[in-house]
Structures are given as C-alpha cells and as structure tokens.
Structures
1.
Amino acid sequence: MKQNNLLNQSGKVLQRALVEQKRVAQLVIQKDLELSKINEQLDRQVDQLEVFQEMANKIRKISSTKNALSTIVRVMVLDLHFSAAIVLLGDSVFKVGSKYSYKKIDEEELVNHNLLDHIIRQDSAYVVKDLKKAQSEDLDLGQLLSLTSFCVIPLKTRKNFFGLFICGIEDPYQKLSKIDLEFLSIVSSFIAYTLESLEAEERQRHIDQMKSEFIFVASHQLRTPLSVIRWTLKMCLDGDLGKMTQIQRKFLKKTYQSNQQMIDLINDLLDVSRIEEGKFEYNFIKLDVSRLLINLIKQFNVFIDKKKLKVKTNFTSNSGIIIQGDESRISLVFNNLIDNAIKFTPSKGRIDIKILKEKNWIKMVVQDNGIGIREEDQKKLFTKFFRADEAKRMQTEGTGLGLFIIKNIIKAHYGRVTVKSKIGEGSVFTCWFPRI
C-alpha cells in the first residue's frame, strides 16, 4: 500500500515537473520568437537608416525636383522593398510628382480620390494597417493602389505644404510595422524639406537667368551709342572737327576716359552673361605664354614708368613655354592681373611675373608688394561684383567682375587660380594650366 502511495506521489511530482518543463520550454520558445522578431525589426531599421543616408547623400547632389523625387521613390521600392511609393504634389488639386510601383495605378483616379481631401484636413499620417479590416473608402483606395497595408502622409514644412506621400506593401500576411511607420514619417519630412530647398534654388536660378538676360540685352543696347560717343570725342580730341582751347580739350579728355570706362564695364557685363549662359567661346591653340606675357608687359610700360615700379620676370620671349589655350582669353586674364598689380602697388614698388614648371602643370605667377587683401575677403574675391575695402579706398572705379571672369576662363582651360595675400605686404596670384 505504502509502495503504491509512493508511486502515485512520484507520478504526480513527475507530472508536475513535466508540466513545468513544458511551460518553461514554451516560454523559452516564445522569448526566442520575440527576440528573433526584435532582431528582425532591428535589422530592418538598420537597413532603412543605411539606405536613407545613402539616398540623402545622392539627393544633395541633385538640383532637379523631378530627378530628386524619382530617386526617392525608386529607392523606397527597389532598395527598401516597399511595393509602391508615390509623391502627389498640390494642395487640393493634385498631380503625380513621381511614382514607382510593381502594379499599374490609375493616376487620374488616384489624384481625384475623395479620401485625399479628408487626409489633408486631418493633417497627420493616415494609416491603413490591414486592408481586410478596412472601411469602404480605405478599401477602395487600397485596391486602387494595389496595397494591403499603406499610409498617406502630408508633405509639409513649417512654412509650406507640398502634397502627399503614399507608401505601402502588398502582402496579405504582412502589415506596416511601427518601425516602418516611424521611418516613413522621417522620409516624408525629408521629401518636404528637399522640395522646399529645391524650390528656393530653382526660383533663384530663374531670377539669376532673368537678371543675366536683362544685363545682356541692356549692355548690347548701351554699347552702340557709347561707341558712337567715343568716336565723336576722339575726332574732337584729334582736331578733326576744328581747333579747341586747352580747357575744352581737358574736359573732353576726361569725358573720353569716363566713356571708355563705361564701355569697359559693359564689355565685362557682356562677358559675364556669356560665361553664365555657356556662350563664352574659346579657340584653343598651342600658345607660347612667355611671348604673350612679354608683349603684355610692354603695353603697361607707360604706367610702370609713371609709378617707378620695378618689374622682374624669369623668362624671355624666346623661352618657348607652351600651353593649350585661347590667346585672346589668356591675354584678358593676365591683362587684368598685371593691371591690378600696377594699380594696387605703391610708387617704387615691385612686381614679379614668373612662369614655373611643376610636374603636370605650368604655373604663371603675378606677385606684388602692394596693399594686400584681408583673409576674410580672399574667400569672396572671385565672386561677381565683389571688391575688397582696401581696393575701393585706393581705386574708386571698378566693377568687381575682373576676377570672376579670370576664374571662369582658367576653369575653361582645365586649370585653377589661387591667391595668397597679407595686408600691407602684397598679393600672389597663381594660375595653373595643364602642361602639354
């Protein structure tokens, strides 16, 4: 009897142990599944963030709204494995800005769908997690999009509303997770701020284009009458229209010089317009830059002698240093640089003009011991219309266009230009051209 009782008790203990073991095993399996799910979600989150970072880097290099949106929707489907991604632009009347989907979507029916107005009024993400449990309007939109789980998010910044972002999956066994919805919210903000940035850039480009066109037309219109005035003044100064008193000649000479400055300004404005429109033409030949510089320096001899400047070179007209370049454009570059060096170097100062060979480059250097340029001004020096304060004080005339033109000419020759300068010690301008 005792033996039977012992057996019964042992059996109950064993049964309880088996039940407990089974419960522990189920708990372990459950936790393992939960951990597996968490790992899967974390992997998904890491993938999303890595792809997003890569996408953001690409978008920063794109200046077209159309190309930016196209890149985003393609990445969402091809790299992040959503079934469809669509950007609708507008506020109440929509158009498809860009879309990428594995299924065909009726765009006209989509942009006119009644639910879109409701989503705008709601002013927050509209989520349909499971189409099987959806209401009639949600079901209708889901079927139109061929998505079983999707969200529609307003594209807005603090200042602007741009439209809607739609993204989702087509899989009856899956739905958008919390992680997916958080990620899609980040993407929608990124799209909105990208649109705002590109819109501002496009508006600025349009304004710049209009300004360039105006300057080009106005300059053309002004150049003809100014040229007529110049030739008339020249005839007067040459005595072709009769004798003049000394006072008359003095005033006419000043007028002639002012007229010439206006023509130079207009020529600079025309050059800038042509550069910006890509119409600044070049005729590349094998160019002897040593001979070109010797001839240019000779043209400045009157001004060099007047200021008693010492000009030193490390080449002669027979040095035979050749680059591939446009003679008139390279002449314009060094005409400007030498002219600036003479203007901003005090009397009895020094100017060094050198040509140096360095590996794959020919370096052409114009160095002076003049007024110099502040460090903060050097960064703006090659931009349009910029003139350093020291230059303005010493030379009131000037357009601030010369160095902008120089930089663009050298760039067209596959070279570069640099400046080193200190206030009161002078400046060094170095132009780099490829060796041939």
2.
Amino acid sequence: MSADPDDSAAARTFGEGLALRATLVRQGTRSVLVFRTDLFVGIVSTLLRVVLVLLVWRAVYGDRTEVSGIAREDAIGYAVLGVLFAAAMQPWQFSSLRDRVRTGNVVFDIMRPVGLITQSTADQLGTTLASLPKAVVGLTLALVLGVVPGPSTAWQTVAFAVSSLLGLVIAIQCNLIVGLTAFWTTEIGGAYLVYGMAAAFCSGSLIPLWLMPDGLAAVLRALPFSAQIFTPLSIWFDRDPGWNVLGELALQAGWIVVLALAAHLVWLRALRRTVINGG
C-alpha cells in the first residue's frame, strides 16, 4: 500500500517545525557563546562563587554538625548546588524580546510562521544551554572538593533529573512572562532586576527553605520560584526519597500548566496594547 499523501505532508511539516525550533535554540546559544571573554569571566566567577559559598557556610556551621536539624554536609552541598543551578537557570542575559519590542523588530517576529511565544522560549532555552558550561565546571570543582554527595538510589537520580528539567521549564516560563511586560513599558531592565533578586531568594538558591521560619517557608513553597531550584535540590538531599517525590513532580507539572496559560493570556493582552517606537 502506498503512503497517504496527507500523512507524508503532515510528517514533513512536523519535521520542518522541529528543525526551525532547533535553529532558534541554536541561535540563542550562539548569542551567548559568541562572546568568549564573557564566557571565560562567567566560568571564573562561578568557580569563585562556589569557593566563597563553601567558606561562608563552613564558617556559619563552625564546629556544629547540624543546625535546625540540617546536617552540615547537606547545607554546604545544597548551597553549592544552589549556586550552580542559579548560574544555569537564572542567567542575567534574558530573552532578546525586550530589545526587539523597543526597536520595533518584533513586528517581523509576529509575522513569522512560528509564534512569538515559541521564538522567545527557544531563545531563552538556548541562552540557558549556553550557561551550562559554567555550571559543569563549577560542579566538577565541587566534586573534586567532595562537598556534593551522590544520590542514594537510582530512583533518586531519575527523580532529580526529571525535577531539574521541570524546574528549568518553569524558570523559562517565568522569564517569558516578565519579558512580555515589555509590550507595556518597552523598557523592563528594572523589572528584570527585581525579578532576578526575587527569584534568587524565593527559589531557595541563596538560603534553603529548610532554614527559614515555617510561615515564610510555607509561603515561598506555594510560589513557582521554589519549584525552579528548591524542589530538585530537596529531592537530591532527601535521605529516604519515596512516593512523596511524585507529589513534588506533580506540583511542578501543575505550575507548568498554570504558567503556560498565564503566558498565553499575557500575550493576548500584549497584542492589544503593543507600543512600538516609530509607529
């Protein structure tokens, strides 16, 4: 039997769509890696942050083996991994969407066959992938220093990997929503600065939520920021990961659905209030 022409056309269109999205991701990666000096400085900066965090948390604990029920080794390992996660998932170089809105080039983006949301998401994913070398080099140093413990079971490794991927998606979605505010203000440098500080604190990358007051920790865990970093790291340092991990993963998946809907609604509103310099 011969293949259905409609099925062949659909498969070809699907393949072309994937290829186009992959190209957009590569462009986002190249936009960061093209600046070799910045990459080198970023790697050195990450290594210094790993060493400084290690020294600070060792000084905080001193001779004590645990604080608030958190073992010294776990707190130090968490702090180091938190720095590495932040370096990869919360980069200072965000999507180019704000610049394209300010210059008016976003008009051409809207006219492309791939939606603006897809374009911006692929761009941010590429930027994140370009940040991975910093995290990998930092992780290598942490492993050499012996401050990051390994997983206890294969299930924990898989759950951590899945949770990290879900956290990355959530971080990209949050970045996208902040970026879409450029359609209202055209200049969102201040918004990105505030968002960066809030995400760093609320995600648990600076201080584990374990060490925060119960009320504050409960509020932060109800926000999507904690699902970016605290959730995967808490799975990694869980002494006895069980079926409760599935609940954490389900919560992350739920946030992805909510944020995707929120981004879509913001985008629809943005189309009605587009302000582009020059017309």
